[in-house]
Amino acid sequence: MLDNSQIPIRKISGFYIGSLEPDFDLIQDDLANLFEKKPEVARNILDGIQGQNSQALEGRGAILLASLPKYGPLVIKSYHRGGLFHHLVQDRYFRFGKTRGQLEYEMLKQVAELGVNAPKAVAFAYTGSFFYKCWLVMCEIIGKKSLVQLSNENPELCLEMIPLLISQLAILIKNKILHIDLHPGNVVLDREGKLFLLDFDNARIVAWSRNSVRNYYLRRWRRAVIKHNLPDFLSEAVCQGLRKSFEEDDDDKN
């Protein structure tokens, strides 16, 4: 992970904003203005899948679409609690170390350096001290479609994308990075056909064997496909690809 001392954090208009962008001095005021706007309720990341089960895969947050010169369209993610705490404290967190926005910012930077296709992290911000509210600014993925959409609209193309997904997951597995919420709604293609992994909130490096990390992904992916009645080939192709890639690569057999 990035060292906290490497990231300049400045207080601007009541917001603590951190960024490694070379033009941070030029965009810091524009960023502060973005955080003052009210975000919309996050769209269902299952992209149109309806029904009670779809609620389980909604993002725990809200988003605001904006833009800045040079960066183009941006997504400003505001972190919201899920579960029972959502009804008590919707968007505040107890401060214990780094904020959730900073942790996801650092993870996005780290996986990008390793070769994982993830949204470009531009900045993070927070207000408050012991109880804080936080944001993450990312470049928007233009024209994105999730594997959920593709599995219904264009199954052939969706199946063609599975090897790309396997190669991306292989990087995470080899580096023992655990993406907590891996499912087809968090895998998207942009309008150029490039595959991206989304939502690295709470992702972390674990002291597990690589096969254990792989097995977590297999279980999480298959559970999502079954629970949300997605096409079986989504589960079968990913399970086959990951098992084939790692049965002989890891000394720790599970």
UniProtKB/TrEMBL annotation:
Superkingdom classification of source: Bacteria
InterPro entries: Kinase-like_dom_sf
SUPFAM superfamilies named among the record's database cross-references: Protein kinase-like (PK-like)
Pfam family, one: Kdo
Annotated Gene3D superfamilies: Transferase(Phosphotransferase) domain 1 (1.10.510.10)
Stated name of the protein: Protein kinase domain-containing protein
